[in-house]
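Progress against Task 2.4 (sequence-to-structure conversion) is shown through the following example record, which the project officer requested during the mid-term review.
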Amino acid sequence: MATDINGKELKHNDLAIYGNKLNEMTFPKFSSIEMNLFWAVASQISNQDRRGGIYDYQEITFTFKELAKLTGLKSRSANRLAKYLKEIMDKLDKAALISETDVKGQPYKFYKFNIFPGFEADAETKKLTVQINPKALPYLTKLTENFTVYDLEKFFGLKSKYSKTLYRIISQYPKFGWVTQDREKLCELLGVPKSYRSSKHFNLFTSRILDPAVEELKPIFKGLKYELITEKKGKGRPTITAIKFTFQRFKPPYTSLTQKKELKEKDADAKNYNDSSKISKPKIKSDRKKKSNNKNNKSQNKPNESNGLNLLQDFMK
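Structure tokens generated for the chain above:
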């Protein structure tokens, strides 16, 4: 089991939950297994926070056995695994979160930092310790809005690294049923080779990368398909500017069966409360009758003016 800095055992993950900003990260030359490793560590932090677990986010430690199970690493000796982890860490060190604000009339802003700045793999203890950048915590903990959630088991089960990235992108928009990505931005996020990005060879991108990725994701996202958005400039041929993905809208996975049950119970309680608090409106007809009766009662209690006048005339005689 993974442990926090104090050696406390952490519960196993079931979901990946993180701020949408992390979906803008690029993973240059990452393999499918290397992506598994990054998101296994990242999701461990958010899952423990969601369950009220660790709050000392300085580092997390995994056993080699757990890493192999989570990421799909093949069985190998502790020394070989430690050296392989070192190669992966060199790549993870390049997976930085970058944000740039360049708006006319506003001050230019730019920041870049690594989510996990430090790693330690020990073949003797057969453990990997990962340090966490405090600046990354707003994207991994205390999330209440603008976050992505998906099933980790399904993510780890995908074979293609392109499928994994597209899976994360689509999972950000469960209630929309569609998402449009700028052509260059999508190629950058997927890590598409530069030779496939030009208009001349773009068919290689669709046939060798996009089509297989969409096909692998169809069992997860019902009705998934894509269309190329083109724009014509001048007399030349239309240029592909974006790719639009459409799919059936879906509900994000619950954090646990317990929470699903609690949500249903809350919905039932709210419905019962609303039903009991309903006040039936009185019928208009009965209101009119009541007003009519009140009017009659008032007329009966009101002194008869003609009788009073007759009495006064008799008195004056």
